[in-house]
């Protein structure tokens, strides 16, 4: 649902949204069995990902000259919500890579990677988290040291989505100048990976990545030495919107399945949806999803107007986490025992939501940020 983005149905965006919704629903239904099997196995469905890229869905805001859709953040949000809504393979990590390259990449870096990531031919991953450094960079151990005009990277990274399949990975490491980001060709000697087994987002499975004395040229630096925090924030302030949208889609998916089932389900002499207690659950979940959608759409419009969205995307993601959790747990109550089997979608949906609650900016860190912004102002209505 796009309450603010689709107010004027005659716009190109509204028409594109409608067409994309139809196309993505058809894509999901055509490949449902394959998507479900890959999800159960924790396998990255490379062919489907490539097809997704071929249709432009991996690169909503990438200019057409680099093989993208040439759209904006609104298109990014729409695709992400439909991905959650239909259980499709997520282009979120690719979009983050594209954001990094568009904001900070040299023309050589863009030429080397941007079109290939946009089309899905090359897989991007981000190697930021470590065993003892997730929410904070302060304990990061990865190092980047100069060796003549090259750099040597040593790092142990974890939780890296699509790490095992990636062609290029953005490594965050501590250089003499401080936190720095490097585009590392994953085929270089010294890069090793081991796929891991996350409970959710299993179509883009995680990996542990090890970088042992990996030699890279100075041209692999993204941004400036010591500029890692800036490169990190410019992408994550926007990509939270993709997370929020996927969460809204996941919540909608849980409710849609549950309501469809409950409308047919007779208990005693009543249809389940005739019980007021069940109706209230549906109302509460719908209300939470509608509020999250409004906040998400507002963040999109604010980004397009001002380019500054850290607070708006934090609000949108927090509301979306709460709404998606409410919708998916209510779905279990609405359908009863029928929902508590792995051949039903509810557990996969809930597990995807649990991952998105932590990854890409956890609920607690978002809460801290919102509080910091509130406390900077004397009057709450002055929050900007
Ligand atoms: C499936 C999955 C995919 C992921 N994908 C990637 C990826 O592709 N690349 C990558 O680099 N990382 C990835 N991550 C890692 C993710 O970004 C981290 O898990 C996240 O940043 C939290 O770090 P942590 O797990 O180390 O938790 P910790 O930092 O150990 O935190 C533990 C808990 O404390 C809370 N907490 C931390 N600080 C505070 C505070 N100041 N106040 C209140 N509460 C606090 C956290 O929110 C969390 O709930 C992924 C994680 C998962 C599970």
TrEMBL record:
UniProt keyword Cytoplasm present: no
Segments forming domain Acyl-CoA dehydrogenase/oxidase C-terminal: 226-375
Domain Acyl-CoA dehydrogenase/oxidase N-terminal: 20-121
GO MF annotation, one: flavin adenine dinucleotide binding
Cofactor: FAD
Gene Ontology CC: plasma membrane
Keyword set, alphabetical order: FAD, Flavoprotein, Oxidoreductase
Pfam families: Acyl-CoA_dh_1 (PF00441), Acyl-CoA_dh_M (PF02770), Acyl-CoA_dh_N (PF02771)
Acyl-CoA oxidase/dehydrogenase middle domain segment(s): 127-214
Domain of life where this protein originates: Bacteria
Keyword Repressor: no
Protein family: Belongs to the acyl-CoA dehydrogenase family.
PANTHER family, per database record: ACYL-COA DEHYDROGENASE, ACYL-COA DEHYDROGENASE FADE4-RELATED
Protein name per the record: Acyl-CoA dehydrogenase
The organism of origin for this protein: Acrocarpospora pleiomorpha
